[in-house]
């Protein structure tokens, strides 16, 4: 089942603060600022971009740049224009194929919007209306200082509204109003909507506006046919060089927008340019027990790893350090005496290397805010200039992105014109569901390497050491700068996002800062406008507010017939279910007929959806949404075909990213129509689509069961049904029946709806709806993978033991088909758990201390533990933002679980007993019951009771509690009876003496095992750390080794002590 | 074989002059709270002056010596000194095992016969940093380099941050004294891998060996020859490694064994005790533990505990010692080990590691590296020494012997105008071979015990 086809894909809202508010940008005098910068500039001159291209002259040729970002500024008097009027100047930030950075300042483009013409409008009144608009606008204080006209143009435009099909489909007259500046659009639209204007002799009190809410940049891109990350060509005889550079980019040109040649991303124009990507990481020296705060704690190092797409070697690997730092092979180390110099040098570095993209791990919410706040604490007025425009301060503000697809995320946004921030943490949180998003566990997950984790309290120690300890820190910092780059490369994030920008036709940065919605908005405008379909400006309040509550029925789930199916289960899927429904039934804003108008249509001209809404047939009018989807899906077919033929790995990654982007975009269209708080919500459409979907699933079920006697549909969800044809079929027979069924049933649906047979589950464990597991087969030779849905394998509030046991049990059940083996395994695990043989790292749960302990309302385990740790030692206690790992130990009777949370290391060191029964009852039992219930039925409790649960081992704590009252005496290593004081040197009591050899060997067995572990674990850590001559400091508690290596030290020491007691005897006398 | 003889002559076994100095490999108290870094640190500290001296004698053209890696400057032609570390993907990695199977407590790692692959990287490290070595210009194969060896490297740092190697210099074979000359032939006997308790073990062969040592085999000439054997070294794996597997299983599978049960099959140990008792009553015996023997796993392995060999341990002629071990017999320094160090070192090269010549080369290299087991602790488990590295060779032995090898092999090398005898002692349980060494001439000879059942 395709998860991307989930109902109501998203509704995303962007706080207004994120929108481009260039008008408010403060322009400083760049003089002082360029002076301070040059102080460090020479350090980085070798990293500058390639030499200059030929800009002018006969041979210059046209300038072609890959557009990476677009923004605009308001110019009071645009001297490029003949009338020097106030205008918005668009800025395209791009890179040439040769790797030169170019800023193209595009002039002359003005925003526009539409209103419906007053009835019985006489075109001769246009000048009069234009004048009254101008006059009305001048009366608004924010517009009165506009140079030149406010209303630049007023024309009649014949078209239709996108929303609703009107029988006989008449053309309507609109007025197209072109204004001086982007901000005027909304102001004027509001005036017109309120009817706060007098267009005598016309008496309309209000005017509905169209397309007034379109973002100015998007408007520009649609008008010039420019896509995201696409190539823009500027004819050599059409552009001019400015008198004075306004940016740090290599070249700047001015051009009129009508001279731009924009290439759609196809064929040759799929290529990319050398994009510079800077991955960086900072280290701060925190105080003991406190997470670093910019108000107090210094920035001590900044590591930078800069690459250029298409080059295998990095352009720069540098680390800037506060205080001397020993050299690092393969990296450039620059040391500074003061933090202010360090920060200033970094700005110079940024300026000299001129990256297009900034990346890192959590830079948006940690590194960048820290740097900016720190600079302001230090009163470094020259620091916050991280963008590409001279004299434009980098400011930070809070944003909030809510989307049902991504969840709500609060984060920071920065004005950093021309540099795109791609925070790998955000990308991962958006695109991958993981147990943990720490850089460690992410690197382990995707790159297969563990990373050394230096706790921030050690960082300060290393910083205050000498040049060698600082070097140690710098190496670590460099690695943290390098890993995000590796992740980006491995996950092909940049390529995929660039393709998405190209497909959706929006700037790259918007994909990261906004939800799915903007992509569909762009596609819709691009498709509708050429057909003269105008998009109405819906007020969130007017159209849908009442319907918001009455949500429509979602997708159907056929009630699962729970069980463990040992025969093949064929899965029939609707390919791209919702897009194909929209295409098949011509569902669109522009084909939807209002209920009161249906009577004017001939019955053969429309389709009625199961939910009762009517859409005209394509023969009457083809829907825009259908066209968008057709384009996307046929483009996806092309991309997939090209992908098959392509051999160049880079082109392959581009094409793969492209086909993915097309699929994502197609699925987003449905979500757009259902997003109640989106730009153009239309419940009729989304309700119709799901209603069709429901009916199709039901039809499929009854068709299968009638055409294939003795077959049963055991489960169905959204876009797929699971069919058991017969009990005794082979895999091959099931597959061929599945194929037949798909072919036969597809015929009963209109094109392009297609039921596909792709896979069989064999065997298949159906637990409940949206919870199942099975071996997935697409060919008869071998299975493809084990497919699990909704089963406890990734949830991070579980301990690893649960995930491990569940996956092992599923493997036994499904792969080995050994039910008894699975039961035995569960019993053995439970028995191991109760006998304390389970490794502690598997029992650790970790939670982030996300706010101050006092701010937590409920008693949570990690908060209670934090308070305990703080009492023990405020210096080493975790701080805000740290993840606190804990295990649950035995406590007093009826002591609540949260009070029994304890630090795993403390538990190891003091031999505290774990509450293994708690783990059994509260962690293991439920998930295992769910899995086993369909298999062994009511009997499931036998897993948790019986012989294997009888033997329980509890360790004796070495401190606290009752141990305070006990006296340590020497006991016999064989039978633990105390040994009399007089013989206290003896390891054994006199009764065990006879068995000395066997007791000795028993202890020896343990020693050998612990020695083996000790050697393996500690050498592994040395390898991972990348040094054999220095101690391992890593505090990465996500690593499976972390607790084990500590535990083995203790175990080995304890058992060696026992062994030594045997050796106290005097050696033989030779 | 004809043992009938008419006259009775009493023969006395020649005695040797056996000196054991302070044994650096004996551990008195063990502490595991420290890590492995210190042992490399100590190794480097001990060998840096040695290798620097060797390098200054080798490269006399006044080349610059950088005292620490951190003082290295790009482009300058210089000599740097550090510990070799070979990054090899095929080394057993517990982390890889965990990612395959996270539920496993601490998996036993599969060990590949060779760690070498195309992605290997050679790194030089000192206390201040590390740098990647690039052997594009150096004809010397990286095959002989082992993790943990201290070397001096001549070359220069390239722009990509590598160090391009021109030449290498090792510490070189340590000094040794020319031993006093002996008047008579006198032999010492080496045997390894007797493997008692293995199911395939041919006990007849052990019996023959016992008969030979005790002078019950052969004719008068044989007896006479036998009386010239003054000492016997048993170099590890007295018990079969099949026994070791049960030993490992026991600790893994403890829940099935309750403490009252007998924990191990005592049979092999009892027969070992009997075997050693018989030997010790007729010849002085030195016993080194091997990988399969019941003592600790980390090098240096400690002497077998007396309680395991209760009867033989009572003999003064029986010494239970560490692995490795060094002593002096009739003025000849003899360094013996049970062979784990050689096995592990062989995994660092692509050579045919069954070839005994290659193994002898590895042994010779170790003398030249002045280290007995450079690959410890990285791939060879060893004790985490804190303030010394006892495996550093301070002086060269006259005889260097490794047990439990695939085949017999020997080489005489000339070091500082004095011969050093290298010996690979084959595994007795598979070859039936033992090795005799004439202490006077340092000439070895191999003897094979075969039973022809036809």
From TrEMBL, chain A:
Q: Which residues form the signal peptide?
A: none
The protein's matches in InterPro entries, at most eight in alphabetical order, are given as: DNA-dir_DNA_pol_B (IPR006172), DNA-dir_DNA_pol_B_CS (IPR017964), DNA-dir_DNA_pol_B_exonuc (IPR006133), DNA-dir_DNA_pol_B_multi_dom (IPR006134), DNA/RNA_pol_sf (IPR043502), DNA_pol_B_thumb (IPR042087), DNA_pol_palm_dom_sf (IPR023211), DNA_pol_type-B (IPR050240)
Q: Which segments constitute the DNA-directed DNA polymerase family B exonuclease domain?
A: 207-442
Q: Name one GO molecular function term.
A: DNA-directed DNA polymerase activity
Keywords for this entry?
A: 4Fe-4S, DNA replication, DNA-binding, DNA-directed DNA polymerase, Exonuclease, Hydrolase, Iron, Iron-sulfur, Metal-binding, Nuclease, Nucleotidyltransferase, Nucleus, Transferase, Zinc, Zinc-finger
Reactions it catalyzes? DNA(n) + a 2'-deoxyribonucleoside 5'-triphosphate = DNA(n+1) + diphosphate
- Where is the protein found, in the record's own terms? Nucleus
Name any GO cellular component annotation: delta DNA polymerase complex
Q: Which family does the similarity line name?
A: Belongs to the DNA polymerase type-B family.
Know the name of this protein? DNA polymerase
Q: What organism is listed for this UniProt entry?
A: Galdieria sulphuraria
Species classification: Eukaryota, Rhodophyta, Bangiophyceae, Galdieriales, Galdieriaceae
UniProtKB/TrEMBL annotation, chain B:
EC numbers:
2.7.7.7
DNA polymerase delta subunit OB-fold domain location: 35-167
Annotated GO molecular function terms are: DNA binding; DNA-directed DNA polymerase activity
Membrane-traversing stretches: none
One biological process GO term for this chain? DNA strand elongation involved in DNA replication
Domain DNA polymerase alpha/delta/epsilon subunit B per the UniProt entry, residue ranges: 189-408
Its cellular-component GO annotations read: delta DNA polymerase complex
Task: Tell me the enzyme class.
Answer: transferase
Alphabetized, the UniProt keywords read: DNA replication, Nucleotidyltransferase, Transferase
Pfam families documented for this protein: DNA_pol_D_N, DNA_pol_E_B
InterPro entries per UniProt = DNA_pol_a/d/e_bsu, DNA_pol_D_N, DNA_pol_delta/II_ssu
Give the family, as the similarity comment puts it: Belongs to the DNA polymerase delta/II small subunit family.
Q: Per its record, how is this protein called by name?
A: DNA polymerase delta subunit 2
């Amino acid at each position: 089942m395709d998860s991307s086809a989930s109902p109501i894909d998203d509704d995303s809202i962007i706080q207004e603060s994120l929108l481009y508010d260039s008008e408010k940008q403060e322009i400083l005098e760049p003089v002082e600022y360029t002076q301070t910068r040059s102080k460090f500039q020479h350090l980085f001159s070798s990293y500058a971009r390639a030499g200059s291209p030929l800009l002018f002259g006969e041979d210059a040729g046209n300038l072609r740049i890959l557009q990476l970002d677009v923004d605009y500024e308001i110019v009071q008097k645009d001297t490029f224009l003949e009338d020097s009027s106030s205008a918005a100047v668009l800025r395209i930030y791009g890179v040439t194929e040769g790797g030169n950075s170019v800023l193209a300042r595009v002039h002359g483009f003005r925003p526009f919007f539409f209103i419906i013409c007053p009835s019985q409008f006489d075109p001769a009144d246009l000048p009069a209306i234009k004048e009254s608009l101008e006059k009305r606008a001048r009366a608004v204080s924010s517009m009165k200082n506009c140079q030149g006209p406010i209303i630049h143009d007023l024309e009649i435009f014949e078209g239709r509204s996108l929303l609703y099909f009107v029988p006989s489909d008449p053309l309507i007259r609109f007025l197209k109003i072109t204004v001086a500046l982007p901000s005027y659009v909304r102001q004027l639209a509001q005036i017109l909507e309120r009817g706060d204007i007098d267009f005598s002799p016309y008496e309309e009190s209000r005017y509905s506006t169209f397309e007034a809410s379109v973002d100015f940049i998007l408007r520009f891109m649609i008008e010039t046919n420019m896509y995201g990350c696409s190539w823009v060509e500027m004819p050599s005889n059409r552009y001019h060089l400015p008198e004075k550079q306004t940016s740090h980019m290599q070249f700047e040109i001015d051009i009129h927008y009508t001279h731009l040649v924009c290439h759609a991303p196809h064929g040759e124009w799929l290529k990319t340019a050398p994009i510079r990507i800077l991955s960086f990481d900072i280290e701060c020296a925190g105080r003991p027990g406190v997470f670093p705060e910019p108000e107090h704690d210094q920035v001590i190092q900044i590591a930078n790893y800069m690459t250029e797409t298409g080059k295998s070697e990095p352009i720069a690997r540098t680390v800037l350090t506060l205080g001397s730092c020993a050299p690092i092979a393969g990296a450039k180390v620059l040391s500074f005496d003061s933090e202010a110099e360090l920060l200033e040098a970094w700005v110079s570095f940024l300026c000299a290397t001129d990256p297009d993209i900034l990346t890192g791990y959590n830079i948006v919410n940690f590194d960048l805010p820290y740097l900016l706040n720190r600079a302001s604490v230090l009163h470094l007025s020259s620091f916050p200039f991280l963008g590409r425009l001279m004299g434009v301060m980098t400011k930070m503000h809070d944003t909030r992105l809510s989307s049902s697809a991504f969840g709500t995320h609060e984060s920071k946004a920065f004005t950093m014109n021309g540099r795109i921030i791609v925070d790998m943490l955000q990308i991962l949180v958006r695109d991958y569901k993981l147990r943990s998003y720490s850089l460690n566990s992410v690197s382990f997950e995707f790159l297969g390497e563990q990373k050394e984790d230096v706790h921030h309290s050690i960082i300060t120690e290393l910083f205050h050491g000498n040049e060698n300890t600082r070097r140690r820190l710098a190496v670590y910092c460099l690695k943290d700068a390098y890993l995000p780059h590796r992740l980006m490369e491995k996950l092909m994030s940049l390529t995929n996002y660039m393709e998405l920008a190209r497909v959706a036709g929006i700037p790259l940065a918007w994909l990261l800062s906004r939800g799915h919605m903007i992509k569909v908005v762009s596609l819709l405008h691009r498709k509708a406008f050429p057909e003269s379909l105008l998009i109405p400006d819906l007020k969130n309040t007017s159209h849908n507010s009442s319907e918001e509550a009455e949500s429509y029925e979602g997708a159907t789930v056929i009630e699962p017939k729970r069980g463990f199916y040992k025969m093949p289960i064929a899965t029939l899927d609707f390919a791209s279910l919702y897009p194909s429904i929209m295409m098949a039934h011509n569902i669109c804003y522009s084909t939807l007929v209002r209920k009161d108008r249906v009577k004017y249509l001939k019955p053969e001209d429309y389709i009625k959806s199961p939910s009762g809404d009517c859409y005209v047939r394509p023969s009457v009018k083809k829907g825009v949404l259908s066209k968008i989807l057709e384009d996307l899906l046929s483009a996806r077919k092309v991309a997939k075909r090209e992908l098959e033929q392509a051999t160049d790995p880079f082109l392959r990654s581009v094409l793969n990213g492209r086909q993915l982007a097309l699929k994502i975009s197609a699925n987003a269209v449905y979500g757009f129509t259902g997003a109640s708080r989106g730009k153009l919500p239309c419940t009729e459409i989304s309700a119709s689509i799901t209603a069709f979907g429901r009916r199709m699933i039901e039809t499929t079920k009854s068709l299968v069961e009638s055409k294939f006697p003795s077959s049963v549909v055991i489960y169905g969800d959204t876009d797929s049904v699971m069919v058991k044809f017969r009990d005794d079929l082979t895999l091959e027979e099931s597959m061929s029946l599945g194929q037949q069924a798909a072919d036969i049933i597809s015929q009963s649906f209109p094109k392009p709806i297609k039921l596909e047979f792709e896979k069989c589950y064999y065997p298949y464990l159906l637990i409940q709806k949206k919870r199942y597991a099975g071996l997935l087969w697409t060919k008869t030779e071998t299975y493809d993978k084990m497919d699990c849905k909704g089963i406890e394998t990734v949830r991070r509030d579980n301990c690893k033991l649960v995930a491990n046991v569940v996956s092992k049990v599923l493997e036994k059940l499904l792969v080995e088909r050994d039910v008894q083996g699975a039961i035995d395994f569960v019993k053995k695990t439970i028995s191991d758990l109760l006998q304390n043989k389970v490794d502690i790292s598997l029992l650790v749960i970790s939670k982030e201390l996300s706010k101050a302990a006092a701010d937590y309302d409920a008693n949570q385990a990690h908060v209670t533990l934090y308070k305990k740790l703080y009492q023990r030692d405020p210096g080493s206690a975790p701080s805000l933002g740290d993840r606190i790992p804990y295990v649950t130990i035995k406590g007093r009777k009826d002591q609540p679980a949260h009070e029994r949370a304890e630090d795993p290391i403390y538990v190891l060191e003091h031999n505290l007993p774990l509450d293994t029964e708690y783990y059994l009852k509260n962690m293991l039992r439920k998930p295992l019951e769910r899995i086993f219930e369909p298999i062994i039925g009511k009997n499931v409790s036998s897993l948790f009771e019986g012989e294997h649960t009888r033997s329980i081992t509890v360790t004796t704590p070495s401190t606290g509690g009752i141990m305070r009252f006990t006296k340590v005496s020497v006991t016999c290593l064989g039978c633990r009876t105390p040994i009399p004081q007089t013989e206290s040197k003896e390891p054994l009591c006199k009764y065990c003496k006879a068995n000395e050899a066997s007791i000795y060997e028993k202890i020896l067995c343990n020693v050998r095992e612990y020695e083996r572990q000790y050697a393996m674990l500690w050498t592994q850590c040395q390898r991972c750390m990348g040094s054999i001559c220095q101690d391992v400091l890593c505090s990465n508690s996500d690593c499976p080794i972390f607790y084990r290596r500590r535990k083995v030290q203790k175990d080995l020491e304890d058992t060696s002590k026992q062994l030594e007691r045997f050796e106290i005897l005097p050696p033989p006398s030779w | 074989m004809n043992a009938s003889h008419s006259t009775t002559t009493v023969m006395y076994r020649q005695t040797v002059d056996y000196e054991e100095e302070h044994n650096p490999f004996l551990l008195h108290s063990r502490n595991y709270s420290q890590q492995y870094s210190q042992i490399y640190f100590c190794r480097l500290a001990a060998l840096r002056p040695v290798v620097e001296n060797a390098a200054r004698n080798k490269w006399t053209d006044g080349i610059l010596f950088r005292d620490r890696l951190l003082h290295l400057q790009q482009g300058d032609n210089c000599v740097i000194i550090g510990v070799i570390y070979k990054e090899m993907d095929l080394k057993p990695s517990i982390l890889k095992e965990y990612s395959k199977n996270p539920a496993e407590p601490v998996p036993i790692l599969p060990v590949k016969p060779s760690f070498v692959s195309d992605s290997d990287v050679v790194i030089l490290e000192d206390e201040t940093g590390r740098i990647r070595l690039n052997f594009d210009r150096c004809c010397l194969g990286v095959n002989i380099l082992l993790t943990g060896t201290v070397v001096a490297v001549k070359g220069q740092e390239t722009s990509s941050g590598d160090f391009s190697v021109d030449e290498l210099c090792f510490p070189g074979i340590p000094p040794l004294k020319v031993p006093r000359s002996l008047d008579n032939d006198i032999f010492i006997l080496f045997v390894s891998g007797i493997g008692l308790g293995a199911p395939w073990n041919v006990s007849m062969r052990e019996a023959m060996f016992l008969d030979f040592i005790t002078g019950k085999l052969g004719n008068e000439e044989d007896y006479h020859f036998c009386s010239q054997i003054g000492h016997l070294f048993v170099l590890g794996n007295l018990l079969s490694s099949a026994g070791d597997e049960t030993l490992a299983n026991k600790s893994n599978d403890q829940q099935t064994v309750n403490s009252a049960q007998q924990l191990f099959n005592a049979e092999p140990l009892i027969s070992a005790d009997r075997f050693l008792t018989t030997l010790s009553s007729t010849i002085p015996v030195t016993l080194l533990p091997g990988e399969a023997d019941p003592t600790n796993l980390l090098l240096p392995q400690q002497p077998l505990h007396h309680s395991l060999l209760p009867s033989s341990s009572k003999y003064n002629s029986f010494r239970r010692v560490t692995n490795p071990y060094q002593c002096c017999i009739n003025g000849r320094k003899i360094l013996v080990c049970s062979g784990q160090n050689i096995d592990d070192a062989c995994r660092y090269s692509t050579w045919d590691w069954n070839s005994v010549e290659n193994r002898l080369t590895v042994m010779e290299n170790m003398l030249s590296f002045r280290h007995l087991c450079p690959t410890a602790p990285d791939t060879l488990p060893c004790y985490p020494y804190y303030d010394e590295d006892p495996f550093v060779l301070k002086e060269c032995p006259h005889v260097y012997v490794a047990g439990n090898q695939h085949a017999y092999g020997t080489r005489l090398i000339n070091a500082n105008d004095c011969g050093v005898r290298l010996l690979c002692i084959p595994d007795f349980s598979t070859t039936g071979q033992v090795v005799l060494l004439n202490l006077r001439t340092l000439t070895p000879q191999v003897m094979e015990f075969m039973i022809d059942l036809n």
